[in-house]
Design brief:
- The protein has about 450 residues and is α/β, with parallel strands linked by helices.
- It folds into 2 domains: about 200 residues, MOFRL domain (glycerate kinase, domain 1), CATH 3.40.1480; about 180 residues, Glycerate kinase, MOFRL-like N-terminal domain (Rossmann fold), CATH 3.40.50.10180.
- The protein is about 40% helix and about 20% strand.
- The chain has 17 helices and 13 strands.
- The chain has a 7-stranded mixed sheet with strand order 3-4-2-1-5-6-7, sandwiched between helices. Strands 8-9-13-10-11-12 form a 6-stranded mixed sheet, with helices on both faces.
- Strand 3 and strand 4 form a beta hairpin.
Length: about 450
């Protein structure tokens, strides 16, 4: 079994060191943040406070999609109980027990690249929605990761086509807005497609946001929201990421035909499918950030929320945030230690090498290089609230002024590791990975810059 952060701390840091003290406080704040966005409680509390939301007599079917799907479904069942007529869950493979039990079907979809189980789950949800009548209610429980997990290729496209396209966009450093703009035009349920399938039933969607700014059309690719983007926009994304020639022929042909008007655009805001649809965001990174800041205050830190819309290249964001921490130590600005600066959002990684890591680990390694020659009274930690950072078993990592030098003493070249997108082995060797396992929630990333006097 992999050691937890708390277990590895004792092996790699001296007792009562500043680094150990700060790491302990960082973890305390992160635990508070994830507890504040526990999906089952968010769903059950929201539904219990609004008994009129789903009507008193209507038959309710539930479609839960995303990294928090299982927990969100549990919260719904806690309140609705026997009112649920049927339900489908698509959550990441390996995090749920798949199969059919009573009125619930559970699928283990692929993330960040879709898989066959996700396609079967999507087809099951489409059939569930299509069978609904005007007096029925479709309760959609949507969370981050839903774009990959619920995948139903348009006719003429294959799962392999969508897998190749998703992988290419991810490796190119495409933003989630760009990625989902393309995916919405290759999939039957994205971009309002699920709302069209469910009409004329009433739709109520509860959303746990994993996208900066909470745009409903981008979160899980907006299955029950109007799509403001077009086929031409999707082609523009491919041009900007220089992917036109490298994607499957079927994908390029599909998008080109759409841009020429030979395929219908996704439904817009005036489409009748949305006339009986309402969407509520019940959790976001603001809620998680507020909880982390509140816990830091309890621990004796002055706090400042820098942003909930952090974006850009991960390594560059890490360097900028590290320099803000250095300014705190040297001038007491914008806060004098003990202090916490917090930024929330989602950065991107342009893959240039063939290493192993994720955006949070890469951000932290960028910060570690900027922190060189600082002491252990300042740390930068970056953490994915879903507990998963890239294709690794870590949620993120933590660094201080000695990180780069300690890595060199173990035979690593931190600059080379960063250039090769290979942050995970370095932090694993140092014992400085943050490992939580899947948290069952997902509201973007939190970056903590914490300093002691």
């Amino acid at each position: 079994m992999k050691a937890t952060l708390e277990e590895t701390m004792a092996k790699t840091t001296p007792p009562d060191s500043s680094f150990e003290h700060l790491r302990r406080d960082v973890m305390d704040c992160l635990r508070a943040a994830t507890a504040a966005v526990e999906p089952a409680a968010l769903v059950s509390d929201f539904l219990a406070a609004r008994p009129e939301l789903l009507g008193g007599e209507s038959r309710v079917s539930v479609a839960a999609v995303g990294k928090a799907a299982q927990a969100m479904m549990s919260g719904a069942r806690r309140v609705l109980a026997e009112r649920i007529h049927a339900g489908v869950v698509i959550a990441p493979e390996g995090t749920v027990e798949t199969g059919t039990s009573e009125d619930l079907e559970v699928f283990g979809g692929g993330h960040p690249v879709p898989n066959e189980a996700g396609v079967r789950g999507a087809e099951t949800i489409r059939q569930l929605a299509s069978d609904l009548g005007e007096d029925d209610v479709l309760l959609c429980l949507i969370s981050g990761g839903g774009s990959a997990l619920m995948t139903l290729p348009e006719p003429g496209l294959s799962l392999a086509d969508l897998r190749a396209t998703t992988d290419a966009l991810l490796r190119s450093g495409a933003t989630i807005q760009q990625l989902n703009c393309v995916r919405k035009h290759l999939d039957q349920l994205k971009g309002g497609g699920l709302a069209v399938a469910a009409a004329p039933a009433r739709i109520v969607a509860l959303v746990l946001s994993d996208v900066v700014g909470d745009p409903l059309d981008v979160i899980a690719s907006g299955p029950v929201s109007p799509d403001p983007t077009t086929f031409t926009d999707a082609l523009q994304v491919l041009a900007e990421r220089e992917l036109e020639a490298s994607l499957p022929v079927a994908v390029r042909s599909h998008l080109t035909c759409g841009a020429r008007g030979e395929r219908p655009e996704n439904p817009k805001a005036d489409d009748p499918a949305f006339a009986r649809s309402e969407v509520h965001i019940i959790g976001s990174n603001r809620l998680a950030a507020a909880a982390a800041l509140a816990r830091a205050k309890e621990l004796g830190y002055e706090t400042l929320l820098l942003s909930t819309v952090l974006a850009g290249e991960a390594r560059e964001a890490g360097q900028v945030l590290a320099t803000m921490g250095l300014e705190m130590l040297r001038s007491g600005q914008p806060l004098a230690p003990p202090a916490l600066l917090l930024a929330a959002g989602e950065t991107t990684v342009t893959v240039r090498g063939n290493g192993r890591g994720g955006r949070n680990q890469e951000l932290t390694l960028g910060a570690a290089l900027a922190l060189e020659d600082a002491d252990e009274n300042l740390v930068v930690a970056s953490f994915g609230t879903d507990g998963i950072d890239g294709p690794t078993d870590a949620a993120g990592a933590i660094a201080c002024g000695t990180t780069a030098q300690r890595a060199r003493e173990l035979g690593f070249d931190p600059v080379r590791s960063l250039h090769n997108n290979d942050s995970h082995p370095l932090f694993e060797a140092l014992g400085d990975l943050i490992r939580t396992g899947p948290t069952g929630t997902n509201v973007l990333d939190l970056v903590l810059v914490m300093a002691r006097p």
